[in-house]
Write a structure and sequence with these properties.
Keywords: ATP-binding, Helicase, Hydrolase, Nucleotide-binding. This protein is an alpha/beta fold and 740 residues long. The chain has 28 helices and 23 strands. The protein starts with 31 loop residues before the first helix and ends in an 11-residue tail after the last helix. Mean pLDDT is 87; it is low at 244-256.
Amino acid sequence: MKSDSPTPKPPAPAFPLPQPRHAARLPASLAPDDWARIRQAAYALPQVLVPEDLDDGSDESLDRLGCIQISKAAGGGRPSRWLLPQHIPVALAQLEATPLTNTLRSQMQQRLHQLESLGLRREGLVFTRLCVHPLTLSHEGWRIDLSHRVPVPEEPVWAFFRDGDTAALRHSLGQAPEYSYKAELTLHLNHLVARSEAMGDAGQLASLLPRLQAECSVPMPYEDLKAALTRAQDRWEQTVEEQSTLASLGRELAFQGYPDSFDTARKLGRKVTLYLGPPNSGKTHAAFERLAQALDGAYLAPLRLLALEGRDRLVGRGVPCSLLTGEESVPAADARVVSSTIEMVNTRDTVDVAVIDEAQMIFDDSRGWAWTQAIVGVPARELIIIGSAYAAPAIERLLQLCGEKPEKRIFERKQHVQLMPAPVPMTHLHAGDAVVAFSRRDVLMLRDQIQQNGHAVSVIYGALPPEVRRREAERFAVGASDILVATDAIGMGLNLPIRRVLFSTLTKFDGVGDRELSVSEVHQIAGRAGRYGMHDEGFVSVLKEAEADAMKTLRSLLPKEPRAPRDFKAPVAPNWRHVDTISRRMGVNKLYAVLSIFMQQLRLDDAHFAVAELEQMLELAEMLDRNASALPLQERFRYAQAPVDNRLPMLVEQFASWATSHARTGKAGDPYFLDEYDQHGRLDRMEQALRICTLWLWLDLRFPDVYGHVEEVIDLRARLNDGIERQLKGKKALWQRRGR
């Protein structure tokens, strides 16, 4: 006889785990309620591990180590979370001392920052301590500060996370242990200095000390450090010898000692000053004051728009100034200064003063090489480097490799940006507000929505040409529009009367996937609020229409200090000397092969330098070797540096046809695009035409007898700029039209 009663469901597990087999790893004495507390607080507990804490960054490694998985990875970039069984009592003790509240995560992050300020950091499963010990050398009492890391017991660290008692932590850790190889290393350093003294060039000897210090400031195993110091002395010795013989092999193979390949800069004994501070702190203004007084000089900007602005700033002070960007050269009569984009830096001709702007861009994956090149190679008697304070250690280390020690000048912001208590609805926007988005489509969509509420709107995004960006900025500055909608382009140098910065989102697409904004990005953008002299105060918040957790994300990111990437190495891209040397020595004429060898050779000095991202250059090189092999190697190398976005097939196709025609006939052919585009097309079509104009002008500047038609292309560019501005100023909806 069948029973009418339903089959009872199995009871829910007492310890819900993503991987049920991990239940065997839980301590027998653990209560279900205690495990529930740990799961609820996992995002804030310092004992919890995520895959990126390990070198290979995988869940499998954490599993092999015997960790218990607390939660799986989730969309939006949230990692999986894990805990070692022996840390379960520690985590519970943490929650007893610091109960789970809305402030627990920020409290733990603050204590983590305090640990890092004491030189403590977590490396995998171990905490290590940075120890710095002075070494005194025989030569004139030279002192070198040696950095090394030693493991520390974890108990005092967990106690600090519980009570925040810095004094108790210091007491528990005690004195920093002596370096195990202090005597051996001092002996090795004395030997290297003695070898350098024996060369008999006393005037050059002082530049050896900062090179040795640069190596000793990076913690590394003893044998690696000893080898790195020997290489540093070798490069120094090589540099001294190169100044007396042009036939030096090391001079020819300059990629083995990148800083020493810039002869003019190395011989100057440059005076270098770092101007450090947040946005709106006056550092750029101070740099221009000095540049305006120079006998001659250079301003190196991150964007063509800022190069234009720099030229106008100097001309406004009565300083004749030329303009040089990737696609134009505009000489001025009796020019004392050239304002240029940083990729156009002149590393041959000496100037009195040079200014490098936005130096934290050295951390940029695609363009950081240009800042490395300029910082190391600009031949200026006085060099001013403007940047954010968090970039200073990386820049100082790079200068030490050049035998230079910079001075620092710190700038403080005149007024601080205040976080608003709540999101702002789009219907409550006021004049002076800037709304930030991270795609062309979103900028245009927001522009249309805000205009429907009766506001006049200016827009700024990356696909806009500098001239239009400038006009849109001026419309906002003079009050012709009262709201600005922009991408993060406003975070770099534009001087705008913004009172409130409002994020429409805290995520952006970075070419691979959507990710949360970094701390430095948030600071750079938010710092545009409250421009000194325009507004007494600045505010930052999010739109109410943003994602649900946007305000929470902003609240967590804004108090944090931006940091440089861990274990950063300055990116380096090849120049013609590298390419020519490799080609001659290796007997290789294929540009793709030469660039590949460069990438391998630079690993000889990978303690401080890394090859820049060359994927786009390699793609162009392969195409040029295949379709334009008749061109000399130097001309193919010039072509490979062109601003061709390989995500735009139409632009790549145009570029390939011009280069192929150049190789076959000596001419690029007629610019048919002059007849295909005008100022009356769709917005996205006009932006596409401007990219073609920019590429043509860039190539003409490097191959003047091959391209030509410059006046017609410039005329089309001006008409396209007018057409784009007209559409942006109009009331017609733009975002629903084709193109992103």
